[in-house]
Amino acid sequence: MELTDRNAQWRDELRYSMSNKERTEIARVKMNELDGEYRSHNSEEVNQGLTKEQALLEAKRCLDCPNPGCMTGCPVGINIPSFIKNIERGEFLNAAKVLKMTSALPAVCGRVCPQEKQCESQCIHLKMKKPAVAIGYLERFAADYERESGNISLPELAPKNGIKVAVVGSGPAGLSFAGDMAKKGYDVTVFEALHEIGGVLKYGIPEFRLPNSIVDVEINNLEKMGVKFMKDTIVGKTLSFDDIKAQGFKGMFVASGAGLPNFMNIEGENLIGVMSSNEYLTRVNLMGAAKDEFDTPVLKGKRVAVIGGGNTSMDSVRTAKRLGADLAMIVYRRSEDEMPARKEEVKHAKEEGVEFRTLHNPIKYIGDEKGRVKQMLLQKMELGEPDEKGRRRPVAIPGATELVDVDTVIVSIGVSPNPLIPRSIDGLEVSQKGTIVVGDNMQSTIPMIFAGGDIVRGGATVILAMGDGRKAAAEMDSYLKNS
Amino acid sequence: MYKIINKEQFSENVFRIDVEAPLIAKARKAGHFVIIRIDENGERIPLTIAGSDLEKGTITLVVQRIGVSSNKLCALKAGDYIADVVGPLGKATHIEKFGTVVCACGGVGTAPMLPIAEAMKKAGNKVIAVLAARTKDLVILEDEVRKVSDEVIIMTDDGSYGTKGLVTNGVESIINREKVDLCVTIGPAIMMKFVSLLTKKYEVPTVASLNTIMVDGTGMCGACRVSVGGETKFVCVDGPEFDAHQVDFDGMMSRMGAYREQEQAAFAKYKESING
Ligand SMILES: Cc1cc2nc3c(=O)[nH]c(=O)nc-3n(C[C@H](O)[C@H](O)[C@H](O)COP(=O)(O)OP(=O)(O)OC[C@H]3O[C@@H](n4cnc5c(N)ncnc54)[C@H](O)[C@@H]3O)c2cc1C
Ligand code: FES
After folding, report:
1. For residues B255 and B251, what is the distance between their CA atoms, to the nearest angstrom?
2. Closest Cα partner for B81 from B30, B40, B128, B123?
3. Residue ranges lining ligand 2, Cβ < 6 Å
4. Cβ contact B132:B151 at 8 Å
5. Pick from A83, A139, A104, A169: nearest CA to A474
6. How far is CA A472 from CA A78, A163, A236, in A?
7. Which of A335, A380, A402, B88 is the most exposed place for a label (fewest CB within 10 A)?
8. Rounded to the nearest 10 degrees, what angle do helices A9-16 and A80-88 cross at?
9. ipTM of model
10. What predicted TM-score, i.e. pTM, was given to this entire model?
11. What is the pLDDT of residues A297-348, one digit of tens each?
12. What are phi and psi of B246, to 5 degrees?
């Protein structure tokens, strides 16, 4: 392929147009961001994207390595040097085409992927003590350019084969599976429990980080490719697995996510004002609760504590700030180094005035006479020996506690797999943690059922979910062709 | 979009609405509920399924006008559409032959009780229903309940119909005269609490169907959580029915008031918008 051939003439010429030394001397681009104080009062997207000039310059930093490390860091194996070099030569639409060869949702991934832990962590620049090429920003640039140009290319579709396949759940895993199967000519129907398509991309990740309109464009494209969406349909409740089979579906991909919020089971956790991040974010993002014209209410706390240090915690605490909290605070039991959230999210939260209370852990909530939370008791912690994963374990410092006034507490300490599907299908093997057990080919113990994304991994990431969807599509295709 | 096929007024504030939802009509069992969203700006509210018609592909909902959403819903007419109806949700009622089953309902609780009484009767139980309401006009579905019960006792607060007294008086009179193997109770939380306290005294196993605040109804948010036997349960997936003697009704009632201020303000605004 001309677009991805490292030895194509245009690519050779580009490579020799500038020395590696010159390339490495260019400073890494800075993302254009809205001002911290300004943005902490609205839902406008914080990252504004790169300009053409910025993207052209940043693309020059890429050395077009013969054995690109970045690609090994990408869970879906995007041909990173090829898309970047297409940017460098000004062929932005072609750059987007390269992205779409392996990624179903580049505009989404360019915004929410933890690049610093994936592709960018393997960049050659780091070995030279320079910051990595801003691969994520460039990915977003190319995808946005294509969308805004109005020239979105629909992938080529194989002739229809008339075989029906079902998808359970419309998060990133389900969407990428649906796209790939449609490309292969299958008749794809996606069943979604909620009234919106998109899974966590819609109900979880806030507008200021991932605008819904971006997700909707991707969904429209899938519709144009012939994918059918059935909202308000819970597989295992509205339709049983037997109903699905009776309707003639030959394969089913379960991508039902990790929807069940964990609580700590400590005193006072059921007080009014204490809620899961899923509830808080769903009210605001899916139900429009922060806007007057919507009926769903949300507590607009003035003193808000968010328990946990992941992306979900950062999204919640930054949302609280936007809903008018005077004090919006992260409470995390380890130190900032161990926080699982993306570095960028932590930085953004700080710029917006979020307080960080690390090495603290709530042990009890205290309510007023109306049953509303008014205080939380925090236990101070220190770091002890490393655990199995190598993260240093937090240990309580005896007697060191502190009482903090709060009116809202958002518990964001992780999720467990949604048990609806596993409970409703006999013979489907489920692990102790409640995840669906699959082989390397994403196939479950019931041959026609494949699964991927958070329901298989527990809470993971958008890109891993997408990668699973892609892999499952290839595997189910060969399974259906050979049976 | 889900079409309203039929609408009937039961009492001043209580309406019966039949909605076209063929998949739910087919899948639902006694004890199940649905979540509906009336329009694009609506909230998601749980409503217990009171019945279904397989031929027409409809489910029956019985709704009491209280806040914004229930008022909006009751203002719709046959032929109008509801944006979303999803279900059937929750676990179905555990039906078996227990012996004598008392169905204690308050107010609109009679509607979700109807399919349960029916199923209990079919399973060979002797079914005694106690229908309680503030006053005669608020007693609903009496004929329907009679059809599936061996006996119906009506209790009104003001004595305008049946016997004067509370639901608990009715239940206690049965317990005092014969052996009761199971009590099922559906109604306002405070009423279920007192039924539960009463049957606990007499050691009659009791099931209550809880109506907490919900958002998704699929176990995703935890808004519906309630403490049962000291453990936190999600009403939408672990319930809605629980061993009443284990339920922390006070905690539940407190949580049901979580958004009271917002609800009242929204309702005032809503009334203004329809009057002005
Ligand atoms: C607030 C938040 C922020 C995050 N931030 C990031 C980030 O910055 N970067 C990143 O990479 N990852 C992030 N993640 C994680 C990421 O969103 C998930 O790993 C990813 O969405 C999982 O995709 P999925 O397709 O497996 O499931 P989901 O996105 O969870 O989608 C599952 C869908 O299935 C539906 N469903 C469930 N059961 C049924 C059923 N029985 N029938 C029909 N439908 C059903 C659900 O309603 C849901 O819509 C974040 C998660 C959250 C909650
Ligand atoms: S309503 Fe959200 S978990 Fe029950």
Report:
1. 6
2. B40
3. B 214-217, 219-224, 234, 236
4. no
5. A104
6. 17, 16, 21
7. A402
8. 70
9. 0.92
10. 0.93
11. 888 899 999 999 999 999 999 999 999 999 999 999 999 988 999 989 999 9
12. -100, -10
